[in-house]
Specification:
By secondary structure, the chain is an alpha/beta fold. It has one domain: 3-Layer(aba) Sandwich (Rossmann fold), CATH 3.40.50.720. The chain is built from eleven helices and eight strands. Strands 3-2-1-4-5-6-7-8 form an eight-stranded mixed β-sheet, sandwiched between helices. Strand 5, helix 7 and strand 6 form a beta-alpha-beta unit. Helix 3 packs parallel to helix 4, helix 5 runs parallel beside helix 6 and helix 6 runs parallel beside helix 7. The longest helix is centred in the middle third of the chain and has 23 residues. It is globular and about 50 Å long.
């Protein structure tokens, strides 16, 4: 029986690999088709030293933008920036230290950026962590909540006036289809009563969608719009904390999106003309896509906003 199972599995995998080019084309997803050029525009992308963020930065640099790679690992960031500068023939690719797990670092980044730049046209909240063992940030927040949601919430708050002054401007928040499995557990936001690292990631991705929804409502009439994005299932370093996912990613890597393909929906939401009426919406494969019922709950979005402000000690009306 075991030999039969192994034989069937081998046959199935052989079939998958033989048909990989066709399957890859299907799963590659949408493509950002706008020809929008960005000379004189300023962009900040978190976590752009690798993966989707790096490819997003590369394309925006090719279009002439002044791109800030905001990342924790500055050496890795400088390596990515050097590569992008050469590839895009654009010297205006800069690296600045940003650790989203530490509000002091977030505030220091924002202070330095605002002193350096007078405009900001595109903010892409791209960085994130996934399936981490239970841990807390420097400020005592559960890591997924602290990095994926609260870190970007604070960063957006600190840069928002600059975005308004530079309008039309956009904020793009990377979420995930797994937000469908998420829930905002207000009674245990820090996961101290119960913690599952898979669900913790899902909860944080739901928070990203709810933040986008509420932010759009509060930005009406300012010229700043915002969008939540599912990049697709991408070959990236994000799964590094899960041995099982690393194994699955290796096994099915021919069928996963590349980082460049994963960047397409972020680019679409940052660049495509005529998206303003869809501010606050969720996109996948460069198209507006349905969200979970929990992600459409205005009361939850409002409460999460209030609780986030309280946790971060800020006032954001």
């Amino acid at each position: 029986m075991m030999l039969l199972i192994l034989g069937l599995l081998t046959s199935f995998l052989s079939f998958l690999y033989l048909t990989a080019p066709t399957i890859r084309k299907f799963f590659a997803g949408g493509v950002c088709r706008t020809n929008m050029q960005l000379p004189g525009k300023v962009v900040v992308i978190t976590g752009a030293n690798t993966g989707i963020g790096k490819e997003t930065a590369r394309e925006l640099a090719r279009r002439g933008a002044r791109v800030y790679i905001a990342c924790r690992d500055v050496l890795k960031g400088e390596s990515a920036a050097s590569e992008i500068r050469a590839d895009a023939k654009n010297s205006q690719v800069l690296v600045r230290k940003l650790d989203l797990s530490d509000t002091k670092s977030i505030r220091a980044f924002a202070e330095g950026f605002l002193a350096e730049e007078k405009q900001l046209h595109i903010l892409i909240n791209n960085a994130g962590v996934m399936m981490c063992p239970y841990s807390k940030t420097a400020d005592g927040f559960e890591t997924h909540l602290g990095v994926n949601h609260l870190g970007h919430f604070l960063l957006t708050h600190l840069l928002l006036e600059q975005l308004k002054k530079s309008a039309p401007a956009r904020v793009v928040n990377l979420s995930s289809v797994v937000h469908h499995a998420g829930k905002i557990r207000f009674h245990d936001l820090q996961g101290e009563k119960y913690y599952n690292r898979g669900f913790a990631y899902c909860h944080s991705k739901l928070a990203n969608v709810l933040f986008t929804r509420e932010l759009a409502k509060r930005l009406q009439g300012t010229g700043v719009t915002t969008y939540a994005v599912h990049p697709g299932v991408v070959r990236s370093e994000l799964v590094r904390h899960s041995f099982l996912l690393c194994l699955l990613w290796q096994l099915f890597s021919p069928f996963l999106k590349s980082a460049r393909e994963g960047a397409q929906t972020s680019l679409h939401c940052a660049l495509a003309e005529g998206l303003e009426p869809l501010s606050g919406k969720y996109f996948s494969d460069c198209r507006r896509t349905c969200v979970s019922p929990k992600a459409r709950n205005n009361k939850t979005a409002e409460r999460l906003w209030t609780v986030s402000c309280e946790l971060l000690g800020i006032q954001w009306e």
